[in-house]
Amino acid sequence: MNRFTRAFRELTRRETPAAAAESMPPGIIPPSRRATSDTPVSLVPVYRAIDIISSAVAQIPLRVERGGVEVPSSEINPLVKRPSLTLTRPDFLEQITISLAVSGNAFLLAKRANGQILELIVLNPHEVHVAIDSRNQRIRYDYRGKTYTNADIQHLRLMTLPGQIMGLGPLQAAKRELTGATLMRDFAAAWFDNTGQPSGILTSDQALTREDAQEIRNTWNNLDREGNALSQTANPSGIKVLGKGATYRPILLSPHDAQYIEARQFSTREITRLFGIPSTLMLIGTEGNSMTYQNVEEDWINFVRFTLTKYLRKIEEALTQFTPRGQTVRFQINALLRADTLKRYKAHKIAMEAGFMTINEIREIESLPPMKEAPHENQ
After folding, report:
1. How does the average pLDDT of the chain come out, rounded?
2. Which of 202, 198, 208 is nearest to 242 (CA)?
3. Which residue has the higher pLDDT, 25 or 219?
4. What's the CA gap between 233 and 71, in Å, rounded?
5. Treating both helix axes as pointing N-terminal to C-terminal, what angle do 3-11 and 89-103 enclose, rounded to 10 degrees?
6. What is Dmax (Cα atoms) for the chain?
């Protein structure tokens, strides 16, 4: 089980009555939160989209800057290097991303000891109740029977609507469309599991009595005269022998069913657009467009700029709150914006020749260790 699956199950697990009662203020009983067959997160395209975004975020390296210059490792707050005592940094970043994608919100609880922050805990967003305290008009967070303030919890919102204290995520924004996709998926499962439409027709060129028709049908379905299932021991291959001119004609996919398949494909494309994922990453084709190497590269760059960056900036701002004044946490996405190796190296060459990047700065972008001796940094 990979780390995405573990985090995804944790964030969509069903709460027991006891846990649910503790997670909300008195008198409020939250609904079940498990990803069941009637929820959008159980749709394959939705799972795939969240997996792509969270995996991408978890793989991008972080750096701490002061005035655009990288801060030495010895001066970086250990909380940024390892925010959680129980999770690796990629796992930690992945849980934040999944929270934002699933609910539009992520909550980081600062766990303290003797006034010092020991670690950051990613809370299940479905267990956090956010409200404005009527006494002082400040936001409070209720989680498992305890109340916290902004000093304890960092609240990340994927999209904030005016006048709203909760963020808006893709699943909430397109609830109606995703509900339709879920119902369509469930209809398909029910159609194949328990459909009233026959899979085929038995016909004969002879006149048949009711008893003859019943006998032929029972023979085809491997039933005895009373309609009870017969053992396959005597006929393990399942070969059917029909008499009296009987033949079997399967019912092929009707035009109506073909339209249903087109509707399923449409739902997948809509989910792809909703999450801002390139169709190539979602393993689906785009009608009317010829896929070329340049198209794929442009799609990837747009994915980084207009989808990943939204998640990355939210996380950067949250982690920056736990660094000394003047320091900023930044994801290194330069390499992602130049996916092609040859183009990336050409860009590095231009940067060095122009004198605004050094060899070690370029090696850092390529995740390489710095050169101990670089006497001609700008050459």
Report:
1. 77
2. 202
3. 219
4. 75
5. 40
6. 100
Supply 356's token pair.
Answer: 């605004």
Q: How many whole angstroms separate alpha carbon 282 and alpha carbon 268?
A: 9
pLDDT, one tens digit per residue, over 344-364 is 888 888 989 998 888 888 887
Q: Which residue has the higher pLDDT, 81 or 175?
A: 81
Q: Tally Cβ neighbours within 10 Å of residue 237.
A: 6
Specify the pTM.
0.68
CA–CA separation, 142 and 146 (whole Å) = 6
Burial of 261 (0-12, 13-18, 19+ CB in 10 A): exposed
Q: Which amino acid is at 225?
A: R
Q: CB of 100 within 8 A of CB of 158? A: yes
In contact, 274 and 40? CB cutoff 8 Å? no
Neighbours of 48 (CB within 10 A): 19
